[in-house]
Give the backbone structure.
Amino acid sequence: QDKLVQSGGGLVQAGGSLRLSCAASRRTDSTYAMAWFRQAPGKEREFVQGISRSGGNTRYANSVKGRFTISRDGAKNTVYLQMNSLKPEDTAVYYCAAATRVAGSDWTTPYTEYDYDVWGQGTQVTVSS
């Protein structure tokens, strides 16, 4: 069974950087589209950034444009989220996810949580002002 294990996160000051990692128990990341979502207190979970199974296409939320970057390393079965210029409003629990049931091309990059069926355990990111 596919399993995603997250690491990274923590507390950082506004303007700082963090990198999140999401390791797949098998070659999940190289087979499926992957994404990062986040959920702030009292808010619904929202899409942050996604990457196609080929790695050739990425998709992002406007709120993180130019600041966050998703990438994948097939050899390590790991997906990363590099977060720069962090803001207090980026504070949330971040989740990685895999879309194992979505058909499509190597460029398909879903952005709704309903397309993702395997989830990491979540990791807290707190940005202080």
